[in-house]
Fold this protein.
Amino acid sequence: MYDACRWLASNETLPEPDGKFGLVLSGPVGIGKSSLAACVLMERARRGQGVMFIDFNDLLNKARKSQRPDTEVHYDEIVSAAGDIPFLLVDDMGDMARRADITDFTRELVYDIIRKRFDFLRETLITTNLTAEQFREMFDDRIYRRVHGIEEDDGMCFWVEPT
Ligand SMILES: Nc1ncnc2c1ncn2[C@@H]1O[C@H](COP(=O)(O)OP(=O)(O)O)[C@@H](O)[C@H]1O
Ligand SMILES: [Mg+2]
């Protein structure tokens, strides 16, 4: 986990289409995923890169708000903000206890963001309590393929589970 974060924090080269340009830190609560991820984010900001931190549950709340008729939060703006920022940290993406929050609507939102980041080679750091298998089950194969990869090496992120 530390080596992977060091790699991402100091990655200077532009991502190559076939290479990895992101990282998932997967593991139980309390092992320091969010703290380490925040360090990577700070280092990227220090180097002058545009960075954004999103708490996954906040993202879902915003997305739900965007469905209300009198809303000032717009779905497309959420997707472009999270999809276009050069470096994105998504903290706590997926939690078995909040499984019910993942609906077709939220899955579509995640897909729209991830697809953009994947297509434009934008670096993404995700922390999650889910195992890769649970992540695949909770989201769907379109998302899983772009993040983790189904065929060898077709995902944008290294998947790191501390042993
Ligand atoms: N490298 C570290 N050394 C000491 N304490 C740490 C370290 N990383 C995290 N912590 C502390 O451990 C707790 C859990 O860290 P956190 O990053 O929230 O874990 P996670 O995101 O995996 O649940 C927090 O109280 C945090 O301050
Ligand atoms: Mg955390």
